[in-house]
Task: structure prediction
Amino acid sequence: MSVWTAAVVVLVWVYAGVWGAERFAVTGLAFPGAATSVAEFLGSVLGGLTSALCVGILAVIVLTAVPDEQGRLCHNTYRLHLWLQRAAIVWLVTSVAMVAIAASNAAGAPLPRVLAGGALGDALAASESARGWIAAALAAAVVAIGIRFTLRWLGHVLLLVPAGIGLLAPVVTGNAGEGPDHDIATSTAIVFTIAVAVLVGLKITVAVRPETVAPVARRTQVVALVAGATAVIYGALLLSTMVRETAVLGSDFGHIALAAWLLLLAVTVVDLVLVWRKSAVRRAVATASAAAIIAVVAAISTLAVLPPPRFLVHTFTIWDVFLGYELPGPVTALRLVSYWRFDTLFGVAALVLVAGYLAGALTLRRRGDTWPAGRTVAWVIGCLALLFATSSGLRAYGSATFSMHMTEHMVLNMFIPVLLVLGAPVTMALRALPAGPKGGPPGPREWVLWFVHSPATKFLANPIVAFCLFVGSLYLVYFTPLFDTLIRYHWGHELMTLHFLLVGYLYYWGIIGIDPGPRRLPFLARLGLLFAVMPFHAFFGIATMTMNSVLGSSFYGHLSVPWLISLTDDQHLGGAIAWGASEVPVIIVVIALVAQWARQDRRSGARHDRHSDSGYDDDLDAYNAMLRELSRTRE
Result:
C-alpha cells in the first residue's frame, strides 16, 4: 500500500510542477506555484468524487428503500444513510477549501499570499469557478446538516435538490459554461454529470453492499443501463464540443477525455449484457465497474482544471463570451421559427415527456381503460411548446434581447403550465405506472403517491402559497440584481426556465388541476384567484414600459446587439408583451374552469336525479332527521 501511495504522490507532484505550469503558460496566466496547483488538482478530484457520491447514494436510497408505515428507512438503506453523513462532511470541507484555492489559481498567486494579503475578496470576484465552489459549499452544508435530522424516505428525496445544485455548480461555472457553444455544453454537462453521479452511487453500492440492492436487482440494473447510456451519449457530445476545431488525440485533454469515455462505454456494454441476459452481477464485475466509474469521475475532475483545446485555437468574439453563438440578424418571424439550437436538457425532456405520456395512454388503452383525448392533446401541445420555447429562435433571441426574453417568459410561465396541468400527468402516472410487489420494495406508483401527498407538496401547492410564489417571484427575479446574474449565464437561463415552469404549474394546479393534490377552493374562489393576478402583471408591464433604467443593463450593454438602437425601447416592448400576452392564458383558464364547473353541476344534478328516482330526497331526509332529533330531545 505504501508503494502505491508513494506512486500517487509522485504523479500528482509531477502533474503540478510540470503539467500544471504548462497549462498556465499556454493560457497566458501566471503560475500560482506547485503547491497551489497540487491543491487545486486534489481538491477538484476529491470534491467531484464526494459530490457525485452524495447524489448517487441519495438516488440509491430513493430507488431501493422499503420505508415503514411512518416513512422511515429500512435497515439496509440506513447504512447508506450513514455513508452519506460522512461523505457530505468531506464534501463540505473540500468545497470550502476549493473556494480559496480556485480564487488563488485565477489570480495566479500562491494561496498563502492571497490569504495573507487580504486579496481573497478581489480574487473571488474575478473567479467564476470560486463562486461555483461557494454554491457547492452551501449545498454541501445543507446536505450535511439536513441528513442529520431525517431518516425518512421523503427527506432524502428533498435532499436531492441541494445535493444536485452543489454537484452542478462547479461544472456549469467551469469549462462547460465558457466559450463558443457554451449554451449547448452547459445543458449537456448538466445531464452528463447527473447520469455519472447516479452511476457512482449504484456501482459503489453494488460492489460494497450488494445486499442493499438485492431485492430490486433488476430495477437497479435497468437504471444503471439508462444512466450509462445517457452518460455515453452526452459525454460524446460534450467531448466533441470541447475539442472542436482540433484533433481529439492532439492534446492531453483529448487523451484523458477519450479514455474516460471509453471506460464509460465499457461499463455500459457490460450493463447491457447483464440486462439482456437477466444475469446477476458477479462480485468481480461489480468491483471492476465501481473502480472504472471512480476513475471516470477522477478524469472528469482533472479535465475541469485543464483548458479545452478549442479555447486555445479559437478566436473569441463577444458573441462567444456572452451567448456562445452568433445570431443571424434582426428578429423576424421566420428566424424565430427556423433558427434552432437544440436544448439538450429541456428539449430532450420535452420529447421524453411526450413519449412517456403516449406510452402510458397506450398502456391504458390495451388494458381496456378509457383516457380522455383532450388531456392527451393538451399534454402533447404543452410539451411541444416547451421544445419550441427552449430550442428554437425564441430561446436564441430571448437570450440576447429583453423583449424576446419576456415573450419566452410568458410562454414558459403562463401558457405551457396551463396545458400541462390540463394533461393530468399525475393521474396518468397513477393509472399507468406499475406498483411494487406486495410485501416488497415500493414501485413508481407508490413514489408518485408519497410525493404528491407529502407535506412539502401540500405546502407549495396550497393556492395561497402558489399565488404568492407566482406573483412574488416575478418581481424578485426582475426587480433585483438577481436578473443581472441569471441573464448573463446559460445556467441562469435554464434555472429560470425550470423556475417559471414549476411556479406556473403549481399556480394553475390549484385553479384548474384535475390531478389529486391540494384541497380545492370553490369555483368562485378559484376564479377570483385567477383574476387577482392580473393587476400584478399589469403593474409589472407598466413598470417595465415606463422605467428609464435598463434591466440587465450590464449584460445587454456588453453584448451590444447591433440592430438594437435603444435598450430602453426594447425593454418597453418587453413590458408591453408581458402586459398584453397575459390575457391569452387567462382566456384558456377561464374556459377550462367554466367547463369543469359545468361538468360538476351535471354530475351533481345526475346524482340528485338518481336519488329522486330511488325515492330519496337529500333535503327532505335531512329535514326529517332534524324532526326526529327534536322529538327525542323533548322526550
Q: What stands out?
A: The chain has a mean pLDDT of 86. Residues 271 and 386 are 33 Å apart (CA to CA).
